[in-house]
Amino acid sequence: MSGNVKMIFDYLDELFPNAYCELEYSKDYELLIAIVLSAQTTDKKVNKVTRVLFKKYPTIYELVNADVRDIEDIIREIGTYKKKSVFVKEIATRLVKDCDGVVPNDVNYLLSLPGVGRKTVNVFLAEFYKVPAIAVDTHVNRVSKRLKLAGVNDDVVDVERKLMKKIPKDRWIKAHHQLIFFGRYFCKAQNPNCGECKLINICIYNKSKETSRVCS
After folding, report:
1. Percentage of the chain surpassing pLDDT 90?
2. How far apart are CA 13 and CA 161, in angstroms?
3. Which band of pLDDT confidence, cut at 50, 70 and 90, is reported for residue 207?
4. What phi, psi does 136 have (nearest 5°)?
5. Helices (H) and strands (E) in the chain, counts
6. Does the structure show a pLDDT above 80 at 138?
7. Residues 6+ away with beta carbon under 8 Å from 115
8. Beta carbons of 95 and 29 less than 8 angstroms apart
9. Do 150 and 159 touch, CB atoms closer than 8 A?
């Protein structure tokens, strides 16, 4: 790793040496569904509703037969719950029909499932099958740009590609979790902990705030 990149991840090792996936699950399909539900909401809210959902429907076969309106009622407090309730039932149905209820280690198949995109696939494969991957969610995207690991105008695919190039492959999974924790708990979208941060001198967020103060 280059000097700045090594400094970033040495600091993340200091802050979050044991960063991990905070979504709760006990089965492969539970993880996949939890990741789909996590779009535009928090892991904490997802865990709250999936505890109820997977207790009421403890197998994927029971989930296939669930009423979409009941799924809606259970996951109502998370964003876009109506659309996601349909995704839950359709994902379960497809997995039972195509794969005997098992979530395969197959990128193309996973991308064919409703509500499943590139980020979801990367998170699932890295967490469940330990396939080296870096998923770019809102936290990873924001932090990567603030720390100049990616350009401010890069889309999520560009950010993913640049992170994969700069970070050794054997660190991808760990780095992904550390960047999420850093963005979620330290380098937050609003009111980040700049005063306590050892990366302040390379952060463009800090420089942009300094510029705005000078110009105001």
Report:
1. 92
2. 22
3. low
4. -105, 100
5. 12, 0
6. yes
7. 36, 39, 83, 84, 87, 90, 91
8. yes
9. yes
Q: What are 72-88's pLDDT values in tens digits?
A: 999 999 989 999 999 99
Q: For tokens 């998170």, what's the residue?
A: 123
pLDDT at 121 over 90: yes
Predicted structure pTM score: 0.91
Considering only CA atoms, give the Rg of the chain. 19
Tell me the CA distances in angstroms from 130 to 26, 98, 126, 148, one per residue in order: 16, 23, 4, 27
CA atoms within 13 A on the CB side of 19: 24
Question: What is the set of active-site residues?
Answer: 119, 137
Q: For residue 198, what are the contacts with CB-CB under 8 A and spacing of at least 6?
A: 11
Over the chain, what is the mean pLDDT? 94
